Structure formats: C-alpha cells, structure tokens
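Can you please make up a protein's amino acid sequence together with its fold in token form to help me picture the idea?
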Amino acid sequence: MTILQTGRPALFIDRDGTLMQDVGYIKDPNDVALLPDAASAIRQMNLARWPVIVVTNQSGIARGMLTEADYVAVKTRLDEQLREGGAHIDAHYYCPHHPEFGGDCSCRKPGTALFDRAITDHIIDASRSVFVGDRWRDVAPALHYAALGILVPGPHTPAEDIAMARSKADVVATLAEAVHRILPDA
C-alpha cells in the first residue's frame, strides 16, 4: 500500500550573487561575504519553517579552477556566517559540470535534476515552493514546477535575464523583498 504525503513548500535559492557576493570562481573561504540582507532573510524563512535549499552551478570544478574540497570549504564558511546571523541552510546541492568540459548534464541549472533530488530528499511540494536567484537560470525551474520564481538582480545579472523574469516571473530589488513577497506577514 502506498501512502501519499503532501510535501511542504521550500525556498530554492542560488548561492553566488544571491546569498553571498559573486566574486567569480571562489575557492578561498576567506573570500565569502554575505550580502547585506541574506542572514535576516534566511532567518525569516527558517522561523516560518520553510526548508531553505541552495542549488548552485559550480562549473569552476569542471574547469579545474577549484576542487570539490574548495567548494566544501566555501560552503562551510557560508554556513558559519549564516549561523552567526541566526540562520541556517537545510541542504546544499551543486552541479560541478560545464558543457564545454565534459558534456551536457541534467543537473546544471536551468536543468532540474538537483531540484528533483531535493524535492524527493526533503518531501517538498515543488508547486508551492519558490525559486530565487540573480540569474534567469536560477528562476527558470519555477516554470517547470508551476511555482513562483523571483529574480533578485545583482551587478552581474544580464539585462535579458531581467526582461525574461519580468515577463515570466517576479523581479524584486533585494532578497528581503523576495522574502516579504513569500511571507507577507514577516
């Protein structure tokens, strides 16, 4: 007998340029710098009991610019800084691939393989979830799941990503605004 479970919504969030400054192929944990409203925004999601799941492309690994150990060290430092701000990430998923270095994969955003894995691992209702990032590829998976996508443009966000998000998702100026859109009473 199969027992059907209704999943809970989650916040799927990009890392570089959304939670922390995008400094390129980051490998030194000392270079991790949270964006100004990141800890408080994530803390609000934690208090609302929404799982916060980072999904990030890390093509620097395929390119040989950093190692998986470098990625883990940076992830650990990000988690430490968020904890210092009273927040936490429930899970991290990353794609170490790049199509020019090893071929295509289904986990590289906007592909959905990492999201599918997280949805299964954490019993998530994808259609009630929210997908937030600073690039269209971070937000585009929301369309696949009939969910809400919110683009938070940063200095590296291409104009065409903003235009695409304006036509198919939401665009807000800060992560705090995105959280307010998700949790209006927070």
Q: What stands out?
A: Helices lie at 38-47, 68-84, 113-122, 136-139, 141-144, 159-168, 175-182. The longest strand covers residues 52-57. Residues 25-182 form a domain with the Rossmann fold fold (CATH 3.40.50.1000). Residues 1-5 have pLDDT under 50 and may be disordered.
